[in-house]
Fold this sequence. Notes:
Layout: E1 3-11, E2 15-22, E3 27-34, E4 46-47, H1 49-70, E5 78-87, E6 93-96, E7 106-107, H2 115-123, H3 127-134, H4 143-153, H5 157-162, E8 166-169, H6 171-179, E9 186-188, H7 189-192, E10 198-199, E11 204-205, H8 207-213, E12 222-224, E13 227-232, E14 243-249, H9 250-257, E15 266-270, E16 274-281, E17 292-298, E18 308-316, H10 320-328, H11 338-344, E19 353-355, E20 373-375, H12 383-409, E21 416-419, H13 426-436, E22 440-443, H14 448-460, H15 467-473, E23 476-480, H16 486-503
Parallel strand pairs: 1-5, 5-14, 9-12, 15-21, 21-22
Antiparallel strand pairs: 1-2, 2-3, 4-7, 6-8, 10-11, 13-14, 15-16, 16-18, 17-18, 19-20, 22-23
Helix pairs in contact: 9-14, 10-12, 11-12, 12-13
Amino acid sequence: MTMxxxxxxxxxxxxxxxxxxxxxxxVAALAQQEFTxxxxxxxxxxxxxxxxxxxxxxxxxxxxxxxxxxRGTARSSIRIRAIGITNQRETTVLWERATGRPLAPxxxxxDRRTTARCEALRRAGKAGFIQRKTGLVPDAYFSGTKLxxxxxxxxxxxxxxxxxELAFGTVDSWLIWNLTGGQVHATDASNAxxxxxxxxxxxxxxxxxxxxxxxxxxxxxxxxxxxxxLGETQPGLLGAPIPIAGVAGDQQAATFGQxxxxxxxxxxxxxxxxxxxxxxxxxxVASRNRLLTTIGWQGPAEEGGRRTAYCLEGxxxxxxxxxxxxxxxxxxxxxxxxxxxxxxxVADTGDVFLVPAFAGxxxxxxxxxxxGTLVGLTRGTTRxxxxxxxxxxxxxxxxxxxxxxxxxxxIALTELRVDGxxxxxxxxxxxxxxxxxxxxxxxxxxETTALGVAYLAGLAVGLWADGAAIAKQWSVDRRFExxxxxxxxxxxxxxxxxxxxxxxxxxxx
Length: 509
Ligand code: ADP
C-alpha cells in the first residue's frame, strides 16, 4: 500500500527543518539541522545561502529516510504528494542566473546595515507613500533596502541585474530555484509582501516603488499564489520529482496552520518575541497604531484562484527573551520552564510590574529610548514576585497588541490561538486569557508553521477538499477561559500602562 505524505520545508533563522505530515495533519517524521550565523560587523547579520540550501536539502533527505525506516518500508512505497516551503522572512539573496552562485552572503532580516537609508526615506517624507502601497514602514528589517545595498555595493551588480543576468529572492525563492534546478524563479505573495517592492493592493511589483529603491524589474521573481503547483523538484534530489505546491512566510504559514481562515481570527506565537497576526479577510486594513498590513496568503484555488487574505501583524520584542534574562542575567531560575513553578509559588506579584523594554518598545508604543523597568518593589518582594511579573509582562504586552489590532480592524476578537515554545506554560496562557478577557486556545499540533504550509500544499494537490476539511482537523489541546472580572481586568491593564509610562524615554537621545 502506498502511503501519502506532505513534506514541509521549514527554513528558519537558526535551523533548517523538514517535517513529513500524514493526511490527518500529524507529524510523521522530523529532521533538523542548525547552520552558521555570521556577524561580520556590529549590526550586520549574514547567512551563507549555499549552507541554507545544503542544510535544507540534507534534512529533507534525512526526513524521508526516517519516514521509510519508521514505517518499516522501502522509500519507494512512500509517496510525497507535494512539498510546501515556509521560511525566515525578508532575508535577501542575490545570485547569478547562469551558475546559481550567490553573489554575496545573504543579508538576514535582523541586519541593520541599511538603517541610515531608511531614516533618509523617512526624512524625505516617504513613509506615508510606502505605507499606503506596501502596508509596511521604511525599516531595515524588510528586503527592499537590503537588495538596493547589494546592487550598489557588489561590483558590477547593478549593470548585470539590468542586463537580466542576476536573480533576487527571499529564502523561499532561493529554495525554489535550487529545488527546480533553476527552472523556476518565483516567490509567493506573502513573502513578496515583505519586500517593500510589492503593492499589496495590486499584488504586483510596483514601478514607483522600484524607482524609489532603484531596483531593475529584471532581477525580480514572478509572484505566485501561496497554494498552487509552481514546479517540480529535480528528479535526482529527493528520489522522484515532487510538486512544489505551497509557499508562505513563517508567520503567515503559522496563521494558516492555526486554521485562522475567517476575518477576526488571530494567532499569537510565543517564542523569543511574540508575533501576533489577525486575519482581516479581503480588506487590507491600514493601521493607525503602526501595526503592519501584510498578505496572509493567496489562494487556495478552491476559493477562487487568487483570492487573498490580508492580515494585521504586530510583534512583542521581548517575550521568551524576558525569561532568558531571568535565567542568564538574574540567574533566578535554572531552566526556562522553571519560571512557571516559581511564579506559581506566589498568589500575585504584590503589585510589582516588570516592563521588559530592554531594546525599546514596539507597537503600540514605539519608543526606541524606553528601557526596562521594575516598579513597585517593597521589602517583601522576592524572586518569585519578579518571575511572576515577567510572565505577566509577556501577556500584558500581547494584550496591548491585541487591543491595537481590535481597534484598527474594528473587529471584536472572540478567541486567541497560541503556539510557540512559551505557549507550553499553562500559567502564562491563563494570564493571557485573563488580560484579554477572551479564551486562549492551544492546539494539539504546535508545529503550526510547517503544518500551515503543508496545508497550503495539500489543498493545491487535492489532498484536502477545502479549508473546512482542514479546520475540522485542527484540534484543541487546552482552552483557557478568562477568570478575571471585567473591572479587575481593566484595573490590571491600567496599572500596566502606568508602569509602561515609567519606562519610556529613558535612554539619552
Ligand atoms: P524561537 O523560535 O524564537 O527560538 P521557541 O518557540 O523555541 O522560540 O521558544 C523558546 C523561547 O520560549 C525562549 O525564549 C524561552 O525562554 C521561552 N520558554 C521556553 N519554555 C518556556 C516556559 N515553560 N515558560 C516561559 N517561557 C518559556
